[in-house]
């Protein structure tokens, strides 16, 4: 079983839609949960991080962690074409683990 | 967050030659850097963890004699792909780990695209 599971998509939505991206994990020792955005042929950039369960909001982005279900989500409100990218979830305890990434396309 | 640069951004080399990729942490001293490889439409694969002043720790299946890592200073780590072959063609990305109370974060470089002909 992989440490982190993420649906690779691809996911295609119309502009203005709410996007939901998800990851599940198996290691209950993970303490920090991150979301990275990666544009084509670029390095990933950190979008958000959360510690422990709960929600965290930053502009149009909301990160949600449910440690009891070992499930994390990233919601993007009012999606824009510029949000088109691959989104990687990541988790860490003593080591880092990345999901495979979900490819998102927002259609104008 | 940290600013990380990589050089070169794109390199083409002939099979059998060696290629060196540099990763620099521009705004803080990084004791730990990571090297990843990413194939098209796939996720990041950790190759090795580079610790300043000591030998790198390689992930299972990564040949340490083929992928030489040198972390000679707190701001520079290099990855040398020796005797490169076409199957080594990939996107190589380095990252630095956050310091002090932000060790859970990683900051990535822009990546280096290697094409071996």
Task: Set down the secondary structure blueprint.
The complex is a heterodimer of chains A (108) and B (117).
Chain A: E1 4-6, E2 11-14, E3 19-25, E4 32-38, E5 45-51, E6 54-58, E7 61-66, E8 71-76, E9 85-92, E10 96-98, E11 102-107
Parallel strand pairs in A: 2-11
Antiparallel strand pairs in A: 1-3, 3-8, 4-5, 4-9, 6-7, 7-8, 9-10, 9-11
Chain B: E1 4-7, E2 10-13, E3 19-25, E4 32-38, E5 45-51, E6 57-58, E7 67-73, E8 76-81, E9 90-97, E10 106-108, E11 112-116
Parallel strand pairs in B: 2-11
Antiparallel strand pairs in B: 1-3, 3-8, 4-5, 4-9, 5-6, 7-8, 9-10, 9-11
Which labels suit this protein?
heterodimer, A: 108 residues, mainly beta, 6-stranded mixed β-sheet, 5-stranded antiparallel β-sheet, 11 strands, B: 7-stranded mixed β-sheet, 4-stranded antiparallel β-sheet, 51% strand
Mean pLDDT of chain B: 90
Q: How many E strands of chain B?
A: 11
Biggest contact: A-B, 23 and 21 residues
How much helical structure, as a percent, in the residues of chain A?
Answer: under 10%
The largest β sheet of chain A comes out as: 6 strands, mixed
Q: Give the CA-CA distance, first to last residue of chain A.
A: 38 Å
Count, helices of chain A = 0
What portion of residues of chain B belong to β-strands? Answer: over 45%
Oligomer category = heterodimer
Which residues of chain B sit in consecutive blocks of at least 5 with pLDDT less than 50? none
Shape of chain A: globular
Q: Kindly, what is the distance between the CA atoms of the first and last residues of chain B, rounded to a whole number of angstroms?
A: 36 Å
Q: Using DSSP, what is the number of strands of chain A?
A: 11
Query: What is the arithmetic mean of pLDDT of chain A?
Result: 92
């Amino acid at each position: 079983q992989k440490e982190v599971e993420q649906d690779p998509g691809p996911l295609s939505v119309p502009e203005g839609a709410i996007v939901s991206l998800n990851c599940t994990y198996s290691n209950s020792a993970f303490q920090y949960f991150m979301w990275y955005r990666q544009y084509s042929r670029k390095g990933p950039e950190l979008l958000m991080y959360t510690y422990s369960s709960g929600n965290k909001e930053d502009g149009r982005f909301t990160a949600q962690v449910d440690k009891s279900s070992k499930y994390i989500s990233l919601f993007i409100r009012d999606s824009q074409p510029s949000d088109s990218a691959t989104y990687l979830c990541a988790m860490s305890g003593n080591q880092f683990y990345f999901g495979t990434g979900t490819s998102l396309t927002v259609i104008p | 967050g940290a600013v990380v640069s990589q050089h070169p951004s794109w390199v083409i080399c002939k099979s059998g030659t060696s290629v060196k990729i540099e990763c620099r942490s521009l705004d803080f001293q990084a004791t730990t850097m990571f090297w990843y490889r990413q194939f098209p439409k796939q996720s990041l694969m950790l190759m090795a963890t580079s610790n300043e002043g000591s030998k790198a720790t390689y992930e299972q299946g990564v040949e340490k004699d083929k992928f030489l890592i040198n972390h000679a200073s707190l701001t520079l780590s290099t990855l040398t792909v020796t005797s490169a072959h076409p199957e080594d063609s990939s996107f190589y990305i380095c990252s630095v780990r956050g310091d002090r109370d932000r060790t859970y974060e990683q900051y990535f470089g822009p990546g280096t695209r290697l094409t071996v002909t």
